[in-house]
Amino acid sequence: MSFPKISVFLLIAMMLSAFISCENGAKLSFYVSSTPQIRYEGRFLTTADSKRFDYPGSRIAIGVDVEGRAKVYASLKPNAGYFTLFVDGKEKSQISTYDAPFDGNRLFFLDSLAQGRHQLELVLKSEGLFCQPEFYGFMVGGDFNIYPLERRSKKIEFIGNSITCAYGVEAADETCPFNDSTSNFVRSFAFLTASAFDAEMMVVARSGIGMYRNYADKPEGSLRPMPVVYRNVLISEENTTWNFSSFSPDLLVVNLGTNDLSTEGFRMELLDKAYRDFLTEIRNHYPNTKILLLTGCMLPASPVLDEFQTRLNAIVEDRKQMGDTQIYRYDFAPHDGTLGYGADWHPSLRQQQKMANELIPYVASIMGW
């Protein structure tokens, strides 16, 4: 015999009622992932009872108007990544889905709220390519009502690689290998830049990805570089198709090329062509968006970096000659170790902050923000 899925949520509510202290008349409610008042930022795949996502920086938020006190839980797939919880815009705590869930299944405690209006926002801080996070809903108990949250007025999309993902940013030093627990998108130049303008954020980034060739792949190119996976909702699901009309950024920031050029055998002319073709596709999706092309900090000062920057400058100038005036360039200085390193020689916490400090005023100058 099969039972409707909602019965699972009712069972969870019954289990929690013994643990959540509520005054007379208080309620305990489960808000499924499709609840209209829940706000999402990023690429999410909707299923019958969940939202699936795998890009760092994916955000899930709910507004809770508390009359007395309330406790909030998130129903998340266990063993599927790390999150940062923000309460009323301030970083509050870290949520690990590798810890034991509250109900032995998939409920994770978020926070206990005092009287007043509160906004709770979960941000995926690790990469979800292999663990494939999933969100089922929020459980709230106490004296409260939920309310819809306004969408942020400014919109930025970041397309990038491990630098954008803040790979290993919290590792002790460059000798540490990759681990999801030391990556933290909340410390990336991308998140810090979006936060500076309180911008809604779309992130399409993963470690090791390139414009035509992923890290250490064959010189002729990879089967699934960024221009290919960019068309999917999830990087882990090749058969999904992203609806580009659902999000139109004011600014789109591209930081790719490091992996294409990081190991021997690259072909600069193939990178150049792939970059030009990708920009044409992006412009078709976003005719009015300002596009900013970056070079990251991991390529050392060298003739290779010089040529790459020269080619990007030429790409921008060629597009301007074609009438595309909403395209810009910015170069991060190569890191030299004075600010330390993250795992596998990636940017450290201080290096990510330095990049944000450089980029924020430049973004302000081109956007008028």
Please outline what is shown here.
The chain is 24% helix and 28% strand.
How is this structure best described in words?
With 369 residues, the protein is α+β, with helices and mostly antiparallel strands. The protein is 24% helix and 28% strand. It has 8 helices and 15 strands. The strands form 2 sheets. Strands 1, 2, 3, 4, 5, 6, 7, 8, 9 and 10 form a 10-stranded antiparallel β-sheet that branches. The chain has a 5-stranded parallel β-sheet with strand order 12-11-13-14-15, with helices on both faces. The longest helix is centred in the last third of the chain and has 19 residues, at 303-321.
Which features would summarize this protein structure in a list?
369 residues; alpha+beta; ten-stranded antiparallel beta sheet; five-stranded parallel beta sheet; 8 helices; 15 strands; globular; disordered N terminus
Average pLDDT works out at 93
N-C termini distance: 58 Å
Shape summary: globular
How much of the sequence is in beta strands? 25-35%
In DSSP terms (H or I, runs of 4 or more residues), the helix count works out at: 8
Q: Uncertain segments of ≥5 residues (pLDDT<50)?
A: 1-8, 17-24
Record field, number of beta strands = 15
Structural class: alpha+beta
What is the succession of H and E elements?
A: HEEEEEEEEEEEHHEHEHHEHEH
> What is the percent of helical residues?
10-25%
Major β-sheet annotation: 10 strands, antiparallel
Rg:
22 Å
